[in-house]
Amino acid sequence: MRNYLKFIIYLTVVLGIFPARAGSYEDFFTAIKRDDAATVQSLLQRGFDPDARSPDGQSGLYLALREPSLKVARVLVDWPRLNVESRNQSDESPLMMAALKGHTDLVRRLIARDAHVNKPGWAPLHYAATHGHLEVMALLLEHHAFIDAESPNGTTPLMMAAMYGTPEAVKLLLDAGADVNMKNQLGMSAWDFAMKANRRDSAELISQHVRTKRPAGRW
């Protein structure tokens, strides 16, 4: 009889916990979508895992930055038990998404939490250069981002800026010392990237930079 009562109590506790956890999970990701910072804060205070993954494997912070749901993102970034280096299956970190979206304040907060400015493969500077987010690029470089970081196929931030970014982003990287002579695995330089995308302003900036570095009469 005692064993039977213990089993009933056990089932009651377990069946009570699982729906609560399931409900919290749904509430967490719904709140992110709605930028409902109060609900996220409440769930975290009640012990919800800040690093819980969505069904497609994304962390809550990554999703908040991508939406963007910036009020929720700030709550998560400031939550002490959050893993700021939680990466998805593509090896993307929250800092990379913040850089891609140009969220300068959140990039600053993530760096203050020791998010990795430099990492092998695609890096935050690649992502910032892709959309020409000058403030984010300058901030990353200020915190010692490797200016000639190479992606798995050898693409550098300058190449990304030349093809997808802006002439201003190209100039910032050139002025900061980016290597214009580097080539990716297909043998393409930043100038080639600019020409392929018909970004003639960026191509001309790169050409001018090369000319200033060569002896007079040689080009």
Automatic annotation (TrEMBL):
Pfam families reported for this sequence: Ank_2
InterPro entries for this protein: ANKRD_45/46/60, Ankyrin_rpt, Ankyrin_rpt-contain_sf
Residue ranges of ANK repeats: 90-118, 120-152, 153-185
Domain of life assignment: Bacteria
Keywords annotated in UniProt: ANK repeat
PANTHER family cross-referenced by the UniProt entry: ANKYRIN REPEAT DOMAIN-CONTAINING PROTEIN 60, USHER SYNDROME TYPE-1G PROTEIN-LIKE PROTEIN
Record-given protein name: Ankyrin repeat domain-containing protein
Annotated source species: Ramlibacter rhizophilus
